[in-house]
Automatic annotation (TrEMBL):
InterPro entries: TPR-like_helical_dom_sf, TPR_rpt, Ycf3
Name of the protein described by the UniProt record: Tfp pilus assembly protein PilF
PANTHER family reported for this sequence: TETRATRICOPEPTIDE REPEAT PROTEIN 6 (PTHR44858), UDP-N-ACETYLGLUCOSAMINE--PEPTIDE N-ACETYLGLUCOSAMINYLTRANSFERASE SPINDLY-RELATED (PTHR44858:SF1)
PROSITE patterns found in the cross-reference section: TPR, TPR_REGION
Length: 570
């Protein structure tokens, strides 16, 4: 994550932290340091301590889960998941990840339940659907199972060993086990498992080859037909998808997701005669606005106008947003989900490629340009990010987050006048949060417009009165205006929030020196040294104050001490 986005995350997260007890925050911050250095054994008890202090500390629960998983303590991760779900019962990721943990523990019924709950939250999530299908196949009666374990031939033994590794999530090792076998293979499942390993490893072309090898042994192999059909469907190779999905459908005609993809492959492949009966059956059964929409388009192409209008009316009724652009929105959703998955995995370049492809088809969608800009920031290309954010506000003049992002880019480039203008536009567009006012104030401060910056910092404090940096910034603005009493008051407020905020206490000393209060400056400088004996500017403050009081020997001693600690003060 770039420093800019990290700053945004910390500022947004600060409100959550401040809602917790101080002891919980202290334990959490200590745990984070160990977690970031991968010392999970030390971090876990500290996260537990934070939860004990503040049981509703959601992020501490999430971090504790991650520690247990990193240490392979899945038995401890499960209750941690369940505790987190009490705080966030509608969190898709918690349900989905708990399901994966149950899968590793081979607790199939529990995994199935969590996946079903995750799909209640996000019914179209591809990963959850695939995981649920795999579990349902595993739990099916033995004669219907695609993957069977009781085998004894040499290829079966290699298969069983690979299957055990696959179920542990060791996909590379599982594939290596299959690759190492040099004898004759007579079971389609062997190549099907190999294809699954390839897919899990992201090697799509290799997976297709193995699915085809499985079908060469058994052309009715259900899962090979189904999975390969979905791959071709996603490639928009609808003709090839139809043939495979038709074969799969003959085996399992009650499988809703299979029927849906087959129907859509007919429609998108311009075979509306075959698409219509499937859509006519599925749309009412699933009460899907998307399927009603495609059914209406199919009926229109078949010249059945009145039926088409009726289906479209139902689609609009089912569409909760009130803005029926389902064909575009579904396409955008697929692009968005894929880009999001790449971004979540740190594959920002892949996310960029997906979003650029989406923009080529939907160039007027502001959200695509904005998300593309965010991904360009992640790879350090601020010029292209700036271009995308500018396009965003051109298409959506009230897009506050785009103005904020443009402000950040210009601020980092030290173009403070433009940064101030963008942050002001962000606020006017409705993003009137503490961070926006703080960034506007920071830009104005850099322009030496201290009176205006002070007003912005005051507004930031009104939005979030518990952020020490806001008081510090306001103190600096008053200091530059020679309003020393107000400056001191705000530095003291920053210190009240964090007694070890050394810079705030040092700037109180600066105010004292400016107003000839040298004894007060000496007293505060000594307080700084008690907290941080190596803070060079505190000794410089002592040197300057003693010199003004005529204590030249002391002044010289403290000056030399300051220079030893920081030669740049020479």
């Amino acid at each position: 994550m770039t420093p800019k986005l990290l700053l945004i995350s910390l500022l947004l997260f600060s409100g959550t932290l401040l809602a917790q007890k101080k002891a919980a925050i202290k334990a959490y911050n200590s745990a984070l340091q160990y977690y970031q250095s991968r010392d999970y054994e030390t971090a876990a008890p500290l996260f537990e301590q934070a939860i004990q202090e503040s049981p509703d500390f959601y992020y501490a629960h999430r971090s504790l889960i991650s520690c247990y998983e990193q240490m392979g303590q899945l038995d401890k991760a499960v209750p941690a998941y369940l505790a987190a779900l009490k705080l966030a019962p509608d969190d898709f990721d918690l349900h989905f990840n708990l399901a994966q943990t149950y899968i590793q523990l081979e607790e199939w019924a529990a995994a199935k339940k969590e996946l079903e709950q995750s799909l209640d939250i996000s019914p179209t999530d591809r990963k959850a659907l695939q995981s649920l299908e795999q579990i349902e196949r595993y739990l099916a009666p033995k004669e219907e199972q695609v993957i069977q374990e009781e085998r004894s031939s040499p290829s079966d033994r290699a298969y069983n060993a690979a299957l055990a590794l696959y179920r542990k999530g060791e996909y590379l090792q599982a594939r290596s086990q299959l690759q190492a076998f040099s004898g004759q293979v007579s079971q389609a499942d062997f190549y099907y498992l190999w294809a699954l390993c390839d897919q899990q490893l992201g090697e799509r072309v290799a997976a297709i080859e193995q699915y085809e090898a499985a079908l060469a042994l058994d052309d009715r192999h259900f899962n090979s037909n189904y999975n390969l059909g979905i791959l071709y469907y996603n490639d928009e190779n609808y003709e090839a998808a139809q043939a495979l999905l038709e074969t799969a459908y003959q085996r399992q005609p009650k499988k809703k997701d299979l029927a849906k993809h087959l129907a859509l492959s007919y429609y998108l492949g311009n075979n509306v005669e075959k698409a219509e009966p499937f859509l006519a059956k599925l749309a009412p059964k699933l009460q899907s606005a998307e399927l009603y929409y495609y059914w209406s388009k199919t009926l229109m192409q078949l010249g059945r106008k009145k039926e088409s209008e009726k289906a479209l009316a139902t689609a609009k009724k089912l569409d909760k947003s009130g803005e029926l652009q389902l064909d575009i929105q579904n396409d955008l959703a697929e692009y968005g989900q894929l880009a999001s998955e790449h971004r979540k995995n740190g594959n920002y370049q892949k996310a960029i490629e997906v979003l650029e492809e989406a923009i080529a088809k939907h160039s007027e969608e502001a959200a695509l340009h904005f998300n593309l800009g965010l991904n360009y920031l992640e790879v350090g290309n601020s010029l292209k990010a700036q271009k995308e954010f500018a396009k965003t506000v051109e298409l959506a003049p009230s897009h506050a987050k785009a103005y904020s992002a443009l402000g950040d880019i210009h601020y980092q480039a030290e173009k403070y006048s433009q940064a101030a203008a963008y942050f002001k536009a962000c606020i006017e567009a409705g993003m009137q949060d503490a961070y926006s006012y703080y960034q506007l104030g920071s830009s104005l401060y850099k322009l030496n417009r201290f009176q205006e910056s002070a007003k912005s910092f005051e507004q930031a404090i009104a939005k979030n009165p518990k952020e020490k940096q806001f008081y510090f910034a306001l103190g600096l603005s008053y200091l530059r205006q020679k309003k020393n009493d107000l400056s001191i008051q705000n530095f003291e407020k920053a210190l009240a929030l964090d007694p070890y905020f050394i810079d705030a206490q040092y700037h109180i000393c600066v105010n004292y020196i400016e107003t000839n209060r040298f004894l007060d400056a000496i007293a505060d400088a000594e307080k700084i040294i008690e907290k941080d004996p190596k803070f060079a500017k505190a000794y410089l403050t002592l040197a300057h104050s003693h010199k003004r009081l005529g204590n030249l020997a002391k002044a010289d001693k403290y000056r030399k001490k300051a220079i030893r600690l920081d030669p740049s003060l020479r």
